[in-house]
């Protein structure tokens, strides 16, 4: 009997110890109380950790979205309404590096070549909203659109294209500038010098970092250069953005200087001046 009571006591003690070890019971005076659950003891810490994790996740999402946006649209250091139409993409130039190949924009003068340049530049002049001009601080000096609160402007890439067109035509002066006197010829030379330096600065500004490598030619001792891809804007998107906002500043009788009268009485730009090749593009 004594042995049985001892065994019963041992079992009861063991069960009590096990419960205490499991954290289910604690002894306080003559009573046993249940220990608070993990959630009740640590819920504040868990909630704080969840909140912090949510904040970190949202922050990383916006950082990644910002980086992706800058990769596609650029850093937008210069304010321009055209920023919304700029998407960067990897692009391979169509002609490679073979001199004998030419595009529709190069070669000897022809109606097809002149039309290609005309179509490329025809929409270059666009309407600029008053708020954009105000941000640029040019609303007091800008050229207003007749009967409109907007202003006439263009984006730099079209100035670059205009300069390239002029330099191409300068190679064929006997076709494009046949009736210039000595003064006009010198003005024409100076304009094209301006275009050369403008394009030089543009190339340095864009800083195309696509790699050019070399390979051996089976027929020439000199290594042949070959370019890889380029970081380019999606031209179709930017060109469409421009065409949606184009104005014809050369329209006869449309644009009037405040004191000197009609800017383009006959609808043609000055063959020597900066308006040449400008939109809407007419003639040379």
Automatic annotation (TrEMBL):
One Gene Ontology term from the biological process aspect of the record: mycotoxin biosynthetic process
Residue ranges crossing the lipid bilayer per the database entry: 45-64
UniProt keyword annotations, A-Z: Membrane, Transmembrane, Transmembrane helix
Matches recorded under InterPro entries: UstYa-like
Pfam families on file: UstYa
Superkingdom of origin organism: Eukaryota
Family assignment from sequence similarity: Belongs to the ustYa family.
PANTHER family in the cross-refs: TAT PATHWAY SIGNAL SEQUENCE, YALI0B05434P
Protein name according to UniProt: Tat pathway signal sequence
Biological classification of the source: Eukaryota, Fungi, Dikarya, Ascomycota, Pezizomycotina
């Amino acid at each position: 009997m004594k042995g049985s009571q001892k065994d019963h006591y041992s079992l009861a003690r063991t069960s009590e110890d096990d419960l205490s070890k499991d954290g289910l019971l604690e002894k306080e005076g003559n009573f046993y109380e249940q220990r608070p659950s993990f959630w009740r003891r640590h819920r504040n810490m868990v909630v704080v950790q969840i909140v912090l994790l949510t904040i970190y996740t949202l922050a990383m999402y916006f950082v990644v979205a910002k980086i992706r946006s800058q990769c596609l649209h650029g850093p937008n250091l210069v304010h321009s309404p055209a920023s919304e139409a700029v998407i960067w993409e990897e692009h391979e130039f169509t002609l490679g590096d073979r001199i004998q190949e030419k595009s529709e924009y190069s070669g000897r003068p022809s109606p097809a070549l002149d039309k290609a340049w005309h179509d490329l530049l025809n929409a270059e002049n666009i309407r600029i909203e008053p708020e954009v001009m105000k941000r640029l601080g040019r609303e007091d000096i800008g050229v207003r659109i007749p009967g409109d609160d907007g202003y006439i402007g263009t984006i730099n890439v079209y100035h670059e294209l205009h300069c390239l067109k002029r330099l191409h035509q300068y190679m064929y002066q006997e076709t494009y500038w046949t009736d210039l006197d000595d003064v006009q010829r010198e003005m024409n030379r100076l304009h094209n010098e301006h275009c050369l330096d403008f394009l030089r600065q543009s190339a340095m500004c864009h800083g195309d970092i696509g790699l050019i490598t070399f390979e051996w030619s089976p027929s020439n001792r000199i290594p042949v250069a070959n370019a890889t891809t380029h970081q380019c804007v999606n031209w179709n998107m930017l060109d469409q953005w421009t065409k949606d906002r184009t104005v014809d500043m050369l329209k006869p009788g449309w644009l009037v200087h405040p004191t000197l009268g009609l800017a383009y009485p006959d609808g043609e730009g000055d063959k020597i001046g900066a308006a040449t090749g400008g939109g809407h593009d007419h003639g040379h």
